Amino acid sequence: MKVLHLISGGDTGGAKTHIMSLFNGLNKLIDAKIICFIEDSFYHDAKAVGIDIEVYKQNSRFDMSVVDKIAKEANDNNYDIIHCHGARANFIGVFLKSKIKKPFVTTVHSDYKLDFKDNFYKKIIFTNLNAFALKKMDYYIAVSDSFKNMLVDRGFKKDKIFTVYNGIIVDQKLEYKTREEFLSDYGIKGQDKTIIGIIARLDKVKDHDTFLKGAKVALDKNENLEFIIAGDGGERERLEDLARELKIDDKVHFIGYITDVYSFYNAIDINTLTSVSESFPYAILEGAIMKKPIISTRVGGLVTLIEDDKNGYLINVGDFEDFGEKVDYLAGHKEELLAMGENLYNKVREKYSSENMAKNHVEIYEEILSKRKEVKK
Fold it and tell me: In which region does residue 124 sit, left (phi positive, over 0), alpha (psi from -120 to 50) or beta (all else)?
């Protein structure tokens, strides 16, 4: 079986980790290749770990000169399935469908109506283009059951949608700085403190307001806490203002976008997520590999992973009071904190490995090809 994957190539964070993890298992099972449209760190990092990847450079999102090149690659090498990831790949996929008579699959990594919500121009143009492109795909892989239900509610055919939860390379050799080194890099004096962290781009869908207001609740009960926000975005100035208004700016550290995520997770005690909408984010899986318990909003597929009082806590969206109470409790019960981190690690290792994710993808590909043969008969 041969599958050609299409992705922007400018991807960072969860999308990048998803592909790296997927191909870690996929290349052991089938012949798979990636074509991306931007030469950036995604391309170089994938190349470095031996992934078959090539850049077909676009001058802009609307540069369709790559379409004929991709069609030639797919037809000359007789790929069985074209698998798209993200809005740019989906849009290109629409133009490819008339040139490549193979099934097209797209992975729905996020709520496509929220992907560009913080940029008015992009929201008007790209959200509608992606919605149009999605409707033209043959099959869908949702990264959580909640996302599958979302697609069904929006008129996508249920029998065309599969679910595969994200997986992570659990046995990878991790390199990271000591807690002391990482904190020193950012001028944070937290060696004897309980440190609460969040990695998320600074936009409204991540709802850092809940994180900050919850931090205020926790700090009113326990001053021996430090909060670190990793990520950047258009909301940064407003969020820094909010931290000052809450009079917790000396306890909250905005460290910007980071690439060394495992050093971050090694430095914190409690991992958190306060998003309004999520799929099944890698920020949780990466933290789990470092045995950090999680406090998260009850969104996306996280209800399948997080078990209250066992490996973390779930809170309702926007409930900063509960968030702060949970932070305070874990900070005061270190043995439970450590046990929850261990439990989360064990569950991810057992159920959310890159090997399991890859096997599930191959089973879906086989089912799609089987359905195609039946139609031809």
Answer: alpha
